Amino acid sequence: MTSTLIDAAGQIVLPLDWREKFGLKPGDAVRLIETENGLVIIPDVDDDDDLTAEEYAILEARLEPYMTDGKFDPAKFAANSDYR
Fold first, then answer.
1. Could you read off the pLDDT tens digit of each residue along the chain, which spans 84 residues?
2. How far is residue 80's CA from residue 71's CA, in Å, rounded to a whole number?
3. Cα separation of 12 and 3, whole Å?
4. How far, in Å, are 19, 23, 42, 49 from residue 27 at the CA level?
């Protein structure tokens, strides 16, 4: 588990190793999803995103266990995730 602080502007810093692991760069958008157990942060991927085909495949594979009908399911994530 990793901890970070919220600054006066309400911003948090994601640790470098996480940014590298998930391919997040300055200016990238993320989605914040509220669950029963807290918040989930995922990359905000849309058709205009600059992910390579390989990066998109990795993202899809990581999110696949938490998908229902092709959409991210926060309840499924909360029930099955190790990130509690």
1. 778 899 999 999 999 988 888 888 898 888 888 877 788 888 886 655 566 778 778 878 888 888 888 788 878 877 776 654
2. 16
3. 10
4. 12, 12, 14, 12
* CB 36 within 8 Å of CB 75: yes
Structure-token pair, residue 30: 């993320």
Could you give the CA distance from residue 82 to residue 84 in angstroms, rounded to a whole number?
A: 6
4-14 pLDDT tens trace: 899 999 999 99
Torsion of the alpha carbons at 31, 34, 37 and 39, rounded to the nearest 10: 30
